[in-house]
Design brief:
single chain; about 180 residues; alpha+beta; Arc Repressor Mutant, subunit A; four-stranded antiparallel β-sheet; SorC_transcr_regulators; transcription regulation; DNA-binding transcription factor activity; DNA binding
């Protein structure tokens, strides 16, 4: 920590208090104190660097963020989602996994992407919980790869779940 004179420290504390506690913008603070906005920004940064200002994130609200970051880093993932459920009921757990899975698929897929699904109750739950429900061209490939793509107007996970329920899906590969 570099030594600042007491006037500089007092100014940094005042600016930080106005910015972080009173939710004033940097422009408002600059007008009130009669100094440049860029000076406000620089002093806020200096306050953080010198420990005058500390920012704490309360991970109790989403304790899974740390685990998600660890999974992304360890396995080189673009995104990871940990779905924590307080319920001991398997149905509730599957529904939550399905909701998070469907939201992830809806968020990450782009036109032309090809996705391979395994089967199981969690994938079925994702199909039942698709968030966007956007009409997309979707389909599946059977083991013989002769099945044409279908356009149903359903989201990809929902269509796949419907195909699984009807017994039509065999390979678990869908395209968008």
């Amino acid at each position: 920590m570099t030594m600042e004179n007491s006037d500089d420290i007092r100014l940094i504390v005042k600016i930080a208090q106005l910015y972080y506690e009173q939710d004033m913008t940097q422009a408002q603070i600059a007008r009130e104190l009669g100094i440049y906005r860029t000076t406000i920004s620089r002093l806020l940064k200096r306050g953080r660097e010198q420990g005058i200002v500390t920012i704490a994130i309360n991970y109790d609200y989403n304790e899974n963020l740390w685990l998600e970051q660890q999974l992304k880093q360890k396995f080189g993932l673009k995104e990871a989602v940990v779905a924590a459920c307080d319920s001991l009921l398997e149905e509730d757990q599957l529904n939550l996994i399905g909701l998070h899975g469907a939201q992830l698929v809806d968020r990450l897929l782009e036109p032309g992407d090809i996705v391979g699904f395994s089967w199981g109750r969690a994938v079925r739950a994702a199909g039942g919980e698709s968030a966007a429900g956007q009409p997309v061209p979707s389909g599946y490939l059977r083991a013989d790869y002769r099945r044409p793509l279908r356009k149903t107007g359903k989201s990809l996970p929902r269509e796949y779940a419907d195909l699984r329920r009807s017994g039509e899906a065999e390979s678990g590969i869908s395209s968008r």
